[in-house]
Amino acid sequence: MAFFADTNEVDKYIGGVFRAAAEHPESGPKFRAAGINLRVLYTDPDCEMWILMREPAMEVTIGPSDETADITLMMRSDTGDKYWRGEYNLAVGLAKGEVKAKGPVNKILKLVPLTKPLFPMYRDLVADKDAAQA
């Protein structure tokens, strides 16, 4: 069974950690400086998420957008959950074809180290959901 019940939960938890990233003292300025429009297509449940990394503020939205994606990642929502828990290596997932990408993947891989300080924040976000499923 999938960890997330619906698109709203994907937005609440994964979108939530991206929104928190924008405010993170170390990672936030670097994400904004990246100037990347990231589109992530999650499945099971389906969710289209846009993370616009630009100054003066990062934006995270759900659903179609008029923006142009610099990079599109495609993965199962559960893969996103495992990544944010610190249990999934994105580079290995790309190599195995579990995560598919369109665009300059090297730009995303350069941002991966910025996400590590956010893993505890994500685990805090999902703690109540984890407890309810235990």
Question: Distance N terminus to C terminus?
Answer: 13 Å
CA-atom Rg in angstroms: 14 Å
Biggest sheet overview = 5 strands, mixed
Number of strands: 5
Share of residues in helices:
40-55%
Shape: globular
- Compute the average pLDDT: 95
User: Approximately how much beta-strand content do the residues carry?
Assistant: 15-25%
How many separate structural domains? 1
CATH superfamily: SCP2 sterol-binding domain
The name CATH uses for the topology is Nonspecific Lipid-transfer Protein, Chain A
Would you tell me the structural class of the helices and strands?
Answer: alpha+beta
Task: Please describe what this structure looks like.
This protein is of the alpha+beta class and 134 residues long. It has a single domain (7-115), classed as Nonspecific Lipid-transfer Protein, Chain A (2-Layer Sandwich). 50% of the residues lie in helices and 21% in strands. It contains 6 helices and 5 strands; from the N terminus they run H-H-E-E-E-E-H-H-E-H-H. Helix 1 (7-23) packs across helix 2, helix 1 runs parallel beside helix 3 and helix 2 (27-34) runs antiparallel to helix 5 (105-115). It is globular and about 40 Å long.
